[in-house]
Amino acid sequence: MAFYDQKVAEELGFDFVDVKMQDTATYRKYRKILLAQYPDKAEMGWPTYLLCESPEGDFKILGEVKGGHPKGEFRERLQELIAPTP
User: Fold this and answer.
1) CA 51 – CA 13 distance, rounded (Å)
2) Dihedral angle of Cα 67, 72, 73, 76, to the nearest 10 degrees
3) Which residues contact 45 (CB under 8 A, 6 or more apart)?
4) What is the pLDDT, as a whole number, of residue 71?
5) Host domain of residue 49
6) Is-cis flag, bond preceding 86, omega within 30?
7) Residue from 48, 44, 50, 46 nearest 63 by CA
8) Whole-angstrom Cα distance, residue 81 to residue 46?
9) What is the spatial distance between Cα 17 and Cα 14, in angstroms, rounded to a whole number?
10) What DSSP letter does each residue of 20-81 carry, written as one string?
11) Is 29 exposed, middle or buried (0-12, 13-18, 19+ CB in 10 A)?
């Protein structure tokens, strides 16, 4: 599923980082973002996608998409996160 979600994210101009807990180096690098959104990981969906600004530094979480979705719905949910608010 991540392969297709990555394609959609990149089509929308996002960088996509697949963080698996088994990949300890990548997990450690982005752990602070995960714990900022889910301090005890209790409310996470599988998969969980966090849309972040400046993930390498002083990050800001812009939104999330939880759970698996068909390609079109995933695209719509990402677009909703970046849509300007009235």
Assistant:
1) 12
2) 120
3) 66, 67
4) 74
5) 2-82
6) no
7) 50
8) 19
9) 10
10) -TTSHHHHHHHHHHHHHH-TTSTT--SSEEEEEESTTSS-EEEEEEES---HHHHHHHHHHH
11) middle
Length in residues, the chain: 86
pLDDT in tens, 41-83: 777 777 888 999 888 889 999 888 887 887 788 889 988 888 8
Global pTM reads 0.79
Q: Give the whole-angstrom CA distance, residue 47 versus residue 68.
A: 6
Picking from 5, 17, 13, the residue whose alpha carbon sits closest to that of residue 55 is 17
Counting the structural domains of the chain, the total is 1
* Alpha-carbon gap, residue 71 to 53, rounded angstroms: 23
Question: Which two three-digit tokens encode residue 67?
Answer: 């759970």
